[in-house]
Amino acid sequence: MLLTVYANDLLFMFIGWEGLGFSSWALIGHWYKDDDELSYVGRFGEKLILDKPAWTTPSYAAYRAIATIRFGDMPMLGAIAAIGILGGSLILTPVSGVSAINWSHVISTLGIGGTVALLLAFMFGPYTKSAQVPFNDWLLTAMTGPTSVSALLHSATMVAAGVYIFMRLTESLYAAGVITYPGVEIMYLVTVYVGLLTALLGALFAMMIDERKVILAGSTMSSLGFMMGVTALTPFIPQSPFATINIGQYVVPLAVLVAFSYLIVHALSKATLFLVSGHLIHVTHTRFNMGNLELGRRMKLAFYATLAAAISLGGVPPLAGYWIHAAMDEVATETISVVGYGAYILMLLASLAYVAFLARFTSLNFIKGEVPHVHEEHGKYPLMVAAYVITGTAALAALAIPFVLTPNIIIEAGKDPVVIAIGIVLWVIFVVALIRPRLVI
Questions:
Q1: Cα–Cα distances in Å, from 19 out to 29, 74, 92, 184, 186?
Q2: Among 380, 387, 390, 407, CA closest to 261
Q3: Is the CB of residue 206 less than 8 Å from the CB of residue 200?
Q4: Spacing of C-alpha 63 from chain mean position
Q5: Could you tell me what percent of the chain has a pLDDT over 90?
């Protein structure tokens, strides 16, 4: 993961990328003997259409993950080779006198069609790694490893790597002054709608599923779609003093900074929710939603951490998610004249569904769910509890991000009357879903 993040060379980045994929395959398939139903995904013993099993074993979930990702890695490797040959370099950002990729030469040599083909081939890697439609199915069954693995996988490593590399690519294209070239814009327009459609479908999946970790997998899919779609809006933002932000020697496009800020809040919140989910599975000995207010009283710290993560990530005011969603709304509004209203509508619908399933998850496990059969005392595992209390509190503290690390435009976006109205609607949906979680399906 560190090699993937730190590499400024596409080849070194790809080496880390492949190691990351292999490690994730091994972690997803940790319980490779498939001898414990509690490590499965789905309802063991039930059948689907055409007599297909309604469950997935750890070994098969790991296979699905690595097979899907390898499907995207091959065209990505070919694209990297082509970039190196035509661009004269694989360096994304010039440092210490080393020349970066000559994107202008790449694009002029290939033309519009060739540029679209090259960039889409490269993006097959991020599309599959970050579970974008139609490569999303593997993510929903990648829940078979230990819950600490799921927390790491979904908050900070494998699935977020695709979005991160797309952000790096965007910065490189922007710095080279080719982000608005026709072939580049076509690929970015495709990615806008791929990302935001993924955001909506992931949120809808999470609303209809009753398995704890799979709900959170749908949430991750949705969040990655937000990040991908917002980053892809970069070429379509009108040039203004707020279109870019200077951070040290780097010039960061606004859309990239907004998406990266969301990545930080998502990582803290999602790690919290997965760790709480693991504790709930351990206590109730079931992978499915189960828990009432009595369990909430017994597991006060777990209840607190879940609520903290849900309201931080859900976009309700005045927590960090609200300000970042406001900035996302501002970016989408600025680009309507180019990308149309479809992107804004998809983003809005996904946001409404997202806050609903977060409240539903909270309610069905701590307020209005089935009466659980508790097998362990809550205070028996202080280290387990401490982990999610720390990350949940950090998610609340992420409120500082819009005020410290990001430009004034994000704060101004949160003061817009329309955005405030949307925030109030999100609070209403959250409260209603807490009270009647089974109606929000």
A1: 15, 15, 20, 29, 31
A2: 407
A3: no
A4: 21
A5: 61
Interatomic CA distance for residues 209 and 287, integer angstroms: 12
3-state secondary structure 87-116: HCCCECCCECCECCCCHHHHHHHHHHHHHH
Alpha-carbon gap, residue 269 to 256, rounded angstroms = 20
Structure-block tokens of residue 78: 């070919």
For residues 228 and 346, the answer to whether their CB atoms sit within 8 Å is no
Q: Distance between CA atoms of 191 and 260, rounded to whole angstroms? A: 16
Q: Which helix (H) or strand (E) holds 246?
A: strand 244-247
Which token pair is 10?
Answer: 């596409």
pTM beyond 0.90: the answer is: yes
pLDDT digit string, tens, across residues 283-340: 888 889 988 898 888 899 999 999 999 999 999 999 999 999 999 998 999 899 889 8
| Structure tokens given for 120 | 């889409």
CB 213 within 8 A of CB 143: yes
**pLDDT at position 44:** 82
Secondary structure class of 393 (helix, strand, coil): helix
The residue whose two tokens read 């109730």 is 284
How distant, in Å, are the alpha carbons of 199, 205, 283 from that of 353? 10, 10, 29
Q: CA–CA separation, 312 vs 430, rounded Å?
A: 12
Taking the C-alpha atoms of residue 255 and residue 413, their distance in angstroms, rounded to an integer, is 13
Please identify every stretch of the chain with a pLDDT value under 70, giving residue numbers as ranges. 97, 156-157, 240-244, 246-249, 374-379, 405-407, 439-441
Mention every residue, 6+ apart, whose C-beta is less than 8 A from residue 433. 355, 356, 357, 359, 360, 363, 439, 440
pLDDT given for residue 15 in this prediction: 95
pLDDT at 409: 75
Q: What is the pLDDT of residues 196-242, one digit of tens each?
A: 999 999 999 999 889 999 999 999 999 999 999 999 999 998 876 56
DSSP conformation letters of 330-372: HHHHHTHHHH-HHHHHHHHHHHHHHHHHHHHHHHHHHTBSPPP
CB–CB of 234/256 below 8 Å?
yes
C-beta separation of 278 from 149 below 8 A: no
